[in-house]
Amino acid sequence: MSTGAARNHRAERAGRRVRPGLPLELLLFVTAILLFLGGGPGQVGPTLPGVIALSLLTVAMIRRGVARPAAIRSHNLADLFGGLAILLAAFILIRQLESLAVDLYPALYALLALFVTVYQPWIALGLAAFAIGLELTLGALSLAHPLGVDLNETCRHVTWMALFTAANLAASWVSRWRRAPRLAASRQESQTGPPHPLDPQPSEPLQVDGQDLINAAAALVRKSCAADSVVLLQISPDRKQLVVTASTLPEHLETTLDAQAGFAGSVLRTGQALMANHLRRDYPGSLPGETGEVGSHVMASLVRYGQKNLGVLVARRNGGPPFIPDDLTALEIGSSLVGSALAAERAVERVTEAHYELERFFAASRLLNSALTPEQVYQSATQALHMITDFELLAITWIDQPEGAHRVVHASGELAAGLEGKAVETERSLCAMVVKNGHYLPLGCDYRPGPYSVLVAQERLETIRSLLVMPLRLHDRVQGTLTIGSTAQQVFKDDRRGMAEVIANQVAVSLDKAKIYARVQEMATIDALTHLHNRRAFQERFGEAQARALRSKTPLSLVLLDIDHFKAINDTHGHPTGDKVLASLGETISGLLRRTDVAARHGGEEFALILEGTDPQGALVMAERLRRVVGEIRFTSAAGIGFGITLSLGVATYPQHALDPQVLFNLADQALYEAKRSGRNQTRLARAIWPRKDRTERMKLEGSAEAGL
């Protein structure tokens, strides 16, 4: 058992031992009160049995305190009984000393003030009420005894007890009110805890001003060596020049010297500190603005960090006493400090650059994770790659399964003209090699046009100098490639190439997710047999078309059609043949409609057509054309029996027949029923059933249509 569990177990056992004593304590307290007030006619003080009962009560309260009342649920009740016992003992002591003319009531007032400070407010109020009630009871009993206490004294004691209790209680409440904000802040800090040094802090770039450290080191060297100027010459990236980046004389800044010649060049070649006194005018390696007088003294020390040379620190004194070896030692110490400052500054620059690159990389990842369609994936991939590197060509290829066709599905950039949609050259292209080997190409990310193309034949990518073709891997299988190219050299270094490969992996996953999303959307809106919209999609598109027709005040026709005697076809030739009939009808309808029209399988053998911008005459022409084309189609059953089908159609148009979409649908359905009842294989136009409230609106719409014509 753990220490905490054992402690809790002991507390529970203590609670079980003490809790049964509460009734006994209450009985002792009531007994003490009765015996205390039950003295004889000439007795003012308590009786001996009352003192005994009070003593037993005190022992019980001490026992409760030893038993850790804080661990017991009834510790507030224990505080109340303890206070009552103390008050009863105080009254006994006060009444016993009254015969000696000693007034201890001020001590009772202080005791009530102490209760207000120590106990809970409701406990303190209860104890004060008990003391006042006991004093009033004693005062009332004193009226029946010739030796009793004067009633005026009793009223004075009660008043002072009430005043002391109220004043201290008010002071306590004011103090708690003032401390409330600090207590709340302290409680919140105790819950959350102070910030730990290892806790993650808000992401901010590290800022260290290395230049201030370098300038401080130069000023320190100048003062310790009594030099007139101290100059820091840093090695240029090509290591051919020395550039003044810090100086106690501002006119020396940005001055360049040959890194192989002069005083500083000797220090770089030998790696040893040099000191030369009494130099003449124009000594090798002098800086512009130096007098070059006879008596000039110069010393230089190599600035390095670890094994890497960073520059040279040069100190110069014009005239006066020459430099001594101690000055050279101070210069070497200063150059060591400068080397550490330079290394720290460069490290901070690298960390800051990596920080910003990682932020851009994570932002790019969030873009790809939010893409739901292939177009969004292409756009997010372009933005993501632009966040980490520069390029003029981005191409994404994908292999469609199970056909295996490998095509460029997206191409963007200045060099991407004419690439999108073309088939990838599978024999002599870098993309085909990447798909085959599953590894990025070219290995050095440097590209020179050669016998192999990058993507497709006859591409124009001669200006590309940096190239990276990465596999799009999905479920341990390469499903395509991602190609980025730039006209600059050495663009895709190791760190950028690594981040680009991670983005390529996310592109593969995002494209697969987008295709799954598209299939789910298609399954939710497209009928699998006829490849037309299903009932749910029809209702949505019908509502959208009705809203557009209402805004533009253009007609909207609805055509409902049904295959005649379709149940007989299923019964005679079988359901597979019936499915072929439905699929063929769906294909025929799709071929006859305009791109703006909508066709849907409304249920079973019933279909619906939404013809936007079509009046009743145009809708009848379309319906009759469809009926004639379908009537000429011949079908063959599995048994080799040929047969044909006919259609019955009903047409209703907004606003000629109805304004409400549901009423319009019902009218088209009634027209279809009329065509079936009249012999089938025909088209019927709905008859308008205008409610009284819609007639005025219809007249307005018809007037607008005639004015438009």
Q: Summed up, what is this model?
A:
52% of the residues lie in helices and 16% in strands. It contains 19 helices and 17 strands.
Secondary structure elements and pairings:
Blueprint: H1 3-18, H2 22-37, H3 48-66, H4 75-97, H5 105-118, H6 121-142, H7 151-192, H8 210-225, E1 229-235, E2 241-247, E3 256-258, H9 262-270, E4 274-279, E5 296-305, E6 308-318, H10 325-369, H11 374-388, E7 393-399, E8 406-412, H12 430-437, E9 466-474, E10 477-486, H13 494-525, H14 535-552, E11 556-563, H15 566-573, H16 575-592, E12 598-603, E13 606-612, H17 616-631, E14 635-636, E15 642-643, E16 647-654, H18 661-677, E17 683-685, H19 692-708
Parallel strand pairs: 16-17
Antiparallel strand pairs: 1-2, 1-6, 2-3, 4-5, 5-6, 7-8, 7-10, 9-10, 11-13, 11-16, 12-13, 14-15
